[in-house]
Design goal:
309 residues; Farnesyl Diphosphate Synthase; mainly alpha; two-stranded antiparallel sheet; 2 strands; homodimer; 16 helices
């Protein structure tokens, strides 16, 4: 038995089956989300609208990052699953609101009609509000076996990442950049660090906090998360140029149409891919002290640069 | 000195100066709100938009109810001020989103142009999102000298009141009732219990929780809050018929224009006023065990039926 354990511990990245890991975790997350936001007899329409977007598929990268980080640091998935669900609720809220006619005016998301195309703008706005409020209720009410002090830290961190200094602030900066293809690389990075990076960092940092991470863990993992967040966005920009709507499940070529600066437009495709690769390599370097337990986070970082949607 | 204390304890409702109390508490709340959401150099536009609506005046009834309840039960204002601010942030968020063209399409609020008329629909949606997220961050990060367990209860209660089973669910039911002047009184009450009542109840219940209320306190105060919440809405409906835009600081006569059922349209003006008065009397009856410490809550209940805007 000892030999078996040692063999497991000695697993290298070549042996780690990311596809199987992602499939299992995605199922775990989707089962939990379906339970977290059940259909309602008292409030049928708003729950239907919330569930429509929340359960519309997607990679579930954010909750998976949260679970993977908590487990890497010795926590169980149970500790992190309410926060993992909340992360997906907040991500879904931001997609529903971003897609509105007053914002990016998108008709498709995750291969389906956007929320407001199905339920109307009024319900879509309210479905987003409902998901955002519920995310915090769900963490506060459902997180068991973690000290209340730590749960409050998670709520504060996640709320900050969701608000005016995170997703919301990044989205405002993004809206301001439309029609300005000549903004600087610094400004572009500012947009993405907030619009996408803040919530991705929260996935990892909140997963770490729930497992009882040290300050040093949180520092390394924040760096890991910020790097993969930025790389994720660079790849998003590249895919907007190179992929089709069918591959993306959402409208392609939108950045060029909106005259938006992107990594490819500022750096070119090749240099953009190199920058993403470098960020990922640096992210993986932050994990060197965690041994084989870090396999999921290493593989997830690699997955970001190789994804096709 | 003992005599002075006894005299204070013997203060009757006739001696309680509500106007002075409201003025002092409003100042306390507005100072706290101004500090809670400062202007930002990094994110200037979104903070300006959030501050525009948050600091636009208003009666500050919700935060004052929270502070008054906490103090009635022996807590200090310091314990409750972060939650009191959060309540006003959430209330403001719901006003900003309700006023959007896709919802009630209002041009004026609190006597000023609505958020989207000044900043555009996109920023108004995001300002609401930012305020909602920040409300929970602010409670989680700023509440001192209350056990973390109790702070989590406050967050869970308030988030529920803000979401699909509270404000959001009530607003959906309200939108569904437009153009249906023949809905039942039960349905009308359902709308208001959720759209307005849930957050008003949260003000009182969260203030009580922060002060360390017993289960019995919470039960009585929930009844108090639900009654004044419903009475508040009935008076709102009455004022929509009888007051002018100048008095209200927002568009008057909107309910009739939207063919919405209201208490006056279903019961008549006189019976509506009587129902509001009865609800207030029952609310005040819930406070009988709290003696003179309940003067602010008693006076606030009375204020609701006598207000002119």
């Amino acid at each position: 038995m000892v030999t078996t354990d040692e063999q497991t511990t000695a697993t290298t990245s070549l042996d780690f089956d990311l596809a199987a890991y992602l499939k299992a975790k995605k199922l775990q997350v989707e089962t939990a989300l379906d339970r977290a936001v059940p259909a309602s007899r008292e409030f049928p329409k708003i729950y239907e609208a919330m569930r429509y977007s929340l359960l519309a598929g997607g990679k579930r990268l954010r909750p998976i990052l949260c679970l993977a980080t908590c487990e890497m640091l010795g926590g169980t998935a149970d500790l992190a699953i309410p926060t993992a669900c909340a992360l997906e609720m907040i991500h879904t809220m931001s997609l529903i609101h971003d897609d509105l006619p007053a914002m990016d005016n998108d008709d498709y998301r995750r291969g389906k009609l956007t929320n407001h195309k199905v339920y109307g703008e009024d319900i879509a706005i309210l479905a987003g509000d409902g998901l955002l409020a519920y995310a915090f209720e769900y963490i506060a009410a459902q997180t068991a076996e973690v000290s209340p002090q730590r749960v409050l830290q998670v709520i504060a961190y996640l709320a900050k990442a969701s608000g005016a200094m995170g997703i919301v602030g990044g989205q405002v900066a993004d809206l301001e950049s439309e029609g300005k293809p000549d903004i600087s690389l610094d400004r572009l990075e500012f947009i993405h660090v907030h619009k996408t990076g803040a919530l991705l960092a929260a996935c990892v940092v909140c997963g770490a906090m729930l497992a009882g991470a040290t300050e040093e863990d949180v520092q390394k993992l924040t760096q890991y998360a910020q790097n993969i967040g930025l790389a994720f966005q660079i790849i998003d920009d590249i895919l907007d140029v190179t992929a089709t709507r069918e591959e993306l499940g959402k409208t392609a070529g939108k950045d060029a149409a909106a005259q938006k600066a992107t990594y490819p437009s500022l750096l070119g495709l090749e240099a953009s891919q190199q920058k993403a690769d470098r960020l990922i390599a640096e992210a993986i370097a932050q994990l060197k002290d965690y041994g084989t337990k870090a396999e999921p986070l290493r593989a997830l970082a690699g997955f970001i640069t190789s994804r096709k949607n």
